[in-house]
Write a structure and sequence with these properties.
The protein contains 1 helix and 10 strands. It has 139 residues and is mostly beta strands. It has one domain: Carboxypeptidase-like, regulatory domain (Immunoglobulin-like), CATH 2.60.40.1120. Strands 2, 3, 5, 6, 7, 8 and 9 form a 7-stranded antiparallel β-sheet that branches. Strands 4-1-10 form a 3-stranded mixed β-sheet, with no helix packed on it. The longest helix has 18 residues.
Length: 139
């Protein structure tokens, strides 16, 4: 993989494979999970919206599956895959949040580093979870 476009395409492919194949724990057939809408804003440490990227919510505890979303102009919404079915939103619970920023110039699109937010995020059992996430300063 020589170009940044190839690297980004590879990153997207891996994300899709994980999202479609390995996000959820295997369960016997049963009732549909209760999912809750999650939308939000991701700001850089300087307060500016993250221009582009991906966000992943990894479950902690008994939460059902990862939530994934794309970031554009700082805005995102989450969806999850469970047992081969896509759901809008995610189940209630605590999540570790990982952000993979993407820049708008070729130089910014090289090898993006994932950023793990220092504190878990709680998704509540309510119709709309509106989040404002701020990336930590680079060390």
């Amino acid at each position: 993989m020589n170009s940044s476009k190839e690297k980004f395409a590879f990153l997207i492919l891996i994300s899709v494979l994980v999202f479609n194949g390995g996000c959820g724990q295997e369960e016997a057939s049963g009732p549909e999970p209760s999912t809750y809408s999650v939308r939000g804003t991701i700001l850089q440490a300087d307060g500016k919206p993250l221009s582009m990227g991906m966000v992943e919510f990894q479950p902690l505890g008994d939460t059902k599956a990862n939530g994934l979303g794309t970031v554009k102009d700082g805005e995102f919404t989450l969806a999850m895959m469970l047992n081969g079915k896509k759901y809008s939103g995610v189940t209630a619970g605590q999540y570790r949040v990982i952000v993979i920023p993407r820049g708008t110039t070729v130089e910014q699109q090289g090898n993006p580093e994932s950023i793990v937010l220092p504190e878990p995020v709680t998704i509540e059992a309510k119709s709309e979870n509106a989040l404002k996430l701020v990336l930590p300063e680079k060390k």
